[in-house]
Amino acid sequence: MGSTMEHNDILVIGIGGAGGRLVDALAARAPEAVRTAMIDTDAAALAASQAVSKLQIGSHVTNGQGTGGDAGLARRAATDDAEIIRGLFSDARLVVVLAGLGGGTGSAVTPEVIKAAGLSGTPTLCVATQPFSFEGAPRAALA
User: Fold this and answer.
1) What CA–CA distance (Å, rounded) separates 51 from 27?
2) In terms of C-beta density within 10 A (0-12 exposed, 13-18 middle, 19 or more buried), how is residue 121 classed?
3) How many helices (H) and strands (E) does the chain have?
4) Cα 131 from chain centroid?
5) Distance between CA atoms of 143 and 141, rounded to whole angstroms?
6) How far apart are CA 62 and CA 128, in angstroms?
7) How far is the C-alpha of 108 from the C-alpha of 112, rounded, in Å?
8) Which of 3, 6, 100, 116 has the CA that lies 20 to 30 A from 132?
């Protein structure tokens, strides 16, 4: 007989600005539906988030600021703090990753988070948005 999954077995992680806004909307509408977490380099964005768990990465390379669309900087933040990111998955049975592509953090950190979830053996689903056409070719290329 299979075991049922409880709501607290599901971890929804927002990455960067867009992913963080999605997690905040979920937390505001259904605060006890799932566990929520946010990963960002921006300390101010994390402080304003409604996510239950907040993980600031790359503080030594960004000084607590956002990446300003610099994917290389965001990737360095994620790889430098990969062990901390892996710690998020310790008791999750399913991870849902929410991110917006086209900026630095969402585009560069999302693959690192998915890799960490895979290494932990946790089934993972990722929902990522593409940039709007009016945001320009550089964001579309980064996405």
Assistant:
1) 7
2) exposed
3) 7, 5
4) 17
5) 5
6) 24
7) 7
8) 116
